[in-house]
Here is the input.
Amino acid sequence: MNPEAVAIAVFLLTYALVVSERIHRAVAAMLGASAVLFLKIVPWERVPKYLDLNTLFLLMGMMIIVNTARNSGLFEYVAIKTVKLARGSPIRVLLLFSVVTAIVSSVLDNVTTVLLLTPMLLYISRLMDLNPVPFLLSEIFASNIGGTATLIGDPPNIMIGSAAKLSFNEFLSNMGPIAAVDLIITVLIIYLAYNSALKVSPKKKVMIKQTLRGLDENAAIRDIRLFRKSVAIILFVVALFFFHDKLGIEPAVVALLGASLILLWTREDPEGIFEKIEWPALFFFGGLFIIVGALEETGTIAQVAKWVLNHVHTSGEALLAITWFSAFSSAIVDNIPLTAAMIPLIKHMGTSMDVYPLWWALSLGACLGGNGTAIGASANVVVIGIAEREGIRITFGDFLKVGMVIMIVTVATGVGILWVRYIGW
Amino acid sequence: MGLFSSLIQRKFKNIAGRRYERILKEYKEFLLTEEEMMLPEIKSILMPLDRFIGEIPPEIYETLSAYNDARIILVYIIDAHVFHVIEQTLGKDISEEFRKKEENDGRLLLEKIAKNFEGLGISPQIRLFFGDKGEDVIKLAEKHDMLVLSKAYGSEITKTHPLSPVVLKIVQHVDIPVIVY
Here is the structure.
């Protein structure tokens, strides 16, 4: 039995199962990982090498912080406050929700962000008696764009940061400006595309204002002490991320420290919080790391890297190739296995060229590629799934028409910025 | 259900299924239901006035002016019970003096407020009569779609009693939307 062929087959099969979702993605990844371990393609003693604990613990720490803070009603408070600030103006709703979604997504995971903001967005659209589709699309794109901005915003970034030893500040200074420019462009495109659907009469506006006045954001706060403590810990954790490289600590340590402090300070029931950790997501990551480890063990990644290097000779060419390949791939298939496979590839390319800009290219493509199709990112699936449950249909074609334009424009903008910064005129 | 739709639902269930149900349940505690969100059609607005109401805030004019198609009826009610008590205890002349003064004050107030509405392009109807400030408003409210009341209507208010008992009685007995300013 050829171990290389088996490793490739397991990887592709897992990928196919993840895309089709016929069985749960975590189960698919665990199955693949078990297969390569059973067949000793990845020796047991090499598992710790491939299991990226930095990514796993960073995700786990942030999940604990978010789930504890959620008990206070903090995120519902933010959602209601945003709706009230919009004061019944569709343009303001579009703009404010996009900005808030992007900011929250840059710190929390995208799925949690859209899960918490979408019900509020649907509520305000109904109140304004407007088509909610432009608002929902804008929320999806903003979530994916916001996640691109920081080390902790999107799982591909966590994986890239961990593998390439990139700091929070490096991510913010490289990807932050790209995300900011892309967000402005995206809102502008949505506005231009749906301009006629974003209007309410002055009479309706007054009625909306009256209804919103009755909405009390403070009513969403279930525990004011927990609320204050949660805000303090989140601010502390974000502040610590800015200094983690200077302090010489891994981002995962910052997240775990924040998680321990919030549990200690708030005295929330740890069992309840641990139950809410998204274990399927963590097992999905763990399984994928081992499956990609099998590709490394068998030398498949090295061979692909060699092939790529035969065709790509400069950092500029590699930047373009990695960005667009990962963007279009992420639009069709899940960006997490893609990133997991691309990381060792880029590491191998490091023997022949400066790969520093390529990490940003991968982050750009993997995160923003998700905007291309309805199944490109988890946030897309969640928002469209919620919309469908509420009787609002966004078809694959509807999404593709706007999503592809947004993806191509935002990725091209990002490539342009990276090119000017690292390759030159 | 199409291929794409069922794929989305499968993915949604695996990524966020139960979490969404929980979040939705939490939101329902403070968001309006579909039924509550149905805005009633407002064709006529009743605005009772009296000597206690003080100044009407500009936001009230602004809000009411948004109901382009609605008639606004300004009603000044002179307390008939007070009039009878004065008549029986202080005599006819004093009660007549009270009636004249009340009618004059009422008319002036009605004209002043009507003028403010006219400045916004609305011509309200005005009425002045003797009656019961609480009962008559409750009865009149049946023929209107919205009621706009000062919190001092019918009685002076204080820091310890920030809402007039007459207003409290009215809002407890009417079925139409009420704005209390």
